[in-house]
Amino acid sequence: MSKAVPTKVASLIAEDVANAGYELVRVHLSGNGKYAALQIMVERVDGCGIKVEDCARVSSLVSARLEVEPDFAGKYDLEVSSPGIDRPLTRLKDYIRFQGHVAKIDLKAPMDGVRRFQGKIACASEETLVFETDKGLISVPFQEIEQAKLVLTDALMKEALRESKK
Hints:
Structural class: alpha+beta
Order of helices and strands: HEEHEHEEEEEH
Strand order of the largest sheet: 7-6-5-4-8
Helix content: 25-40%
Number of strands: 8
CATH topology of the largest domain: GMP Synthetase, Chain A, domain 3
Shape: globular
């Protein structure tokens, strides 16, 4: 299975997932030639936490969609989960939602000799993200981020606890 698989899968399942009341956070493929795991991360549109029943529902939807696709039928193990507290940041809305929290960022190419750093999300717009780091502010074009994820901090834990009580 190729590196283009997550993008293809996302385009195939996004509408079904949305119609069921979920938002697609990430599609990730891992493994080697003999084994492939297709990881689907979703969150509920209503903001409630993901439960096992939600994962089972999304798994059934995704399986039904992909099993009729010749490129995907039976070629992976499907894993459906919530993004978790220290979640990946994949969409602009994630950066906006988690402003003030710390993230680890990997860039597609080095900027000023730096490809990987950690910083607090200070500002997020469609073109640029600004992070507070121990070396000052770093502005990064959104499209230059290869991957990012929240860092588990006390502040993030407190926010997650507050949200779970809603």
